[in-house]
Specification:
It is built from ten helices and eight strands. It is of the alpha/beta class. Bound molecules: S-adenosylmethionine.
Length: 269
């Protein structure tokens, strides 16, 4: 499928930064699907004013699976024009939107993984479900969407992971060395959650408990923020939060929790 209709979505600010998405890339390159798929096709949706983060994702994914190909999709034709000189056999750029058009030369009808970082942030919350559904319809079996937000230089990031039918999880990623208060990350929640960090919502309870655990383990910062953070995650697990990632990931400042435990009470449609 190649874009022959108007791309779905709107042009938004193209702000990006080199290496800004390293945390989410580290998560993506740890996904089993990347290793298991022959010639995985990754999509960087909304790569921004220049395609540096798309190039970085391909480099990182290729180190895990050398048969990886990456398709950068932008809704702004000017950004596609800027990216074209960087195209190679494994790195293509295509004008499009949430409908995820695939150039015929790739000989594929569906994609393995879509990374959409800092794209939905500039949309309304009521646009999220439709964008997710359209992207989900473009995933091959076992495919994933990673959709979220980060700060300007990628020290704080959050993202949701979806398969082709449901939302699976919410992941937080903190640069532990500069972490003061974990709930600061609330400013970078994915669009679906950012307006729900209020009393009575699960995401607010989760972040409040994370802050309390962080404060109670301040003594461990003498040893390292890594130990302090790991102790916090253990506390949250012990109090029943369905945290699904492993201590190895906690040491990277990454925390993944089941979506059902933190999703908004009401999702706007
Ligand atoms: C803030 S930039 C993010 C750049 C990069 N992903 C990053 O995180 O650094 C958002 C980009 O998404 C693009 N965009 C917005 N909606 C889109 C859509 N539906 N399909 C493709 N690109 C889209 C905008 O044109 C803009 O260039």
């Amino acid at each position: 499928m190649v874009a022959n209709k108007k791309p779905v979505g709107v042009i938004t600010r193209g702000t990006t930064n080199p290496n800004r998405l390293r945390r989410v890339d580290r998560y993506i390159t740890n996904q089993a699907i990347l290793k298991q798929t022959k010639e995985p096709l990754l999509v960087d949706l909304g790569f921004g004013a220049y395609p540096r983060t798309a190039i970085e994702l391909l480099e990182r994914a290729s180190a895990i699976n050398p048969t990886t190909r990456l398709l950068g999709i932008e809704i702004d034709p000017e950004r596609i024009r800027v990216a074209q000189p960087f195209a190679t056999n494994d790195l293509l750029f295509q004008l499009g939107g949430f409908e995820i058009p695939i150039p015929q030369t790739l000989n594929k009808t569906k994609v393995t993984l879509i990374r959409a970082m800092n794209v939905l942030r500039q949309y309304d919350e009521s646009d999220v479900q439709a964008a997710w559904s359209l992207m989900q319809s473009r995933l091959e079996d076992g495919g994933l969407i990673v959709e979220g937000t980060c700060d300007e230089i990628g020290r704080l990031a959050t993202w949701v992971t979806l398969d082709n039918s449901k939302v699976l999880s919410l992941t937080f990623s903190f640069r532990l060395l500069s972490l003061q208060t974990p709930s600061k990350i609330a400013e970078r929640l994915p669009k679906v959650l950012i307006h729900h960090n209020v009393e009575g919502e699960s995401i607010n309870k989760f972040l409040t408990e994370l802050d309390a655990a962080w404060a109670s383990h301040s003594g461990l910062s003498v040893f390292s923020p890594v130990q302090r953070f790991s102790a916090c995650v253990k506390d949250l697990l012990n109090s029943g939060w369905p945290i699904t990632n492993t201590p190895k990931r906690w040491r990277l400042g990454e925390l993944t929790v089941d979506w059902d435990a933190v999703k908004p009470r009401v999702v706007l449609l």
